[in-house]
Amino acid sequence: MLITHLNDALTLAERRDPSYLQLKHAADLAYDELVRRHPALYRHIRTALQPYETRYGCLSLPRSRSDVRRQVFTELERLHAARLHCHAPPAR
User: Fold this and answer.
1) Which residue among 7, 45, 70, 88 is buried most deeply as judged by most CB within 10 Å?
2) How confident is the model at residue 31 (pLDDT cuts 50, 70, 90)?
3) In Å, how far from its chain's centre is CA 58?
4) At what angle do helices 2-14 and 65-86 cross, to 10 degrees?
5) For 82-87, what is the mean pLDDT?
């Protein structure tokens, strides 16, 4: 859910909505929460984006940001589902 909120906030901020500063602040808070509460997910995101970094925090993407974002979030959802599957009680 945190990733979805972050994604929504960033998408709206990218469109330069009139409330851009509020959305940017919300995105910053969500980012801080991701780093603090979910360091493994943060590391996965950083690793996925590393090939596109020109310097820390700056990306040169071969396709649209939304395509790359969708790819990273799909991978995160797959990891989450696999983790849930591993912790599920055995079938009877």
Assistant:
1) 45
2) confident
3) 15
4) 180
5) 75
For the stretch 26-46, what's the b/e string if a residue is b when 16 or more beta carbons lie within 10 angstroms of its beta carbon? Answer: bbeebbeebeeeeeebeeebe
Categorize the per-residue pLDDT at 15 as very low, low, confident or very high, splitting at 50, 70 and 90.
low
* Residue 71 clears pLDDT 80, i.e. is over it: yes
Residue 9 tokens read as 């906030």
- In terms of pTM, does the model score above 0.85? no
DSSP annotation of 61 reads -
Query: Is the alpha carbon torsion for 24, 29, 32, 38 positive or negative?
Result: negative
Cα within 13 Å of Cα(56), Cβ side = 0
The C-alpha angle with vertex 50 and arms to 87 and 70, in degrees rounded to 5, equals 60
| Residue 92 DSSP class | -
**Total residue count of the chain as it appears in this document:** 92
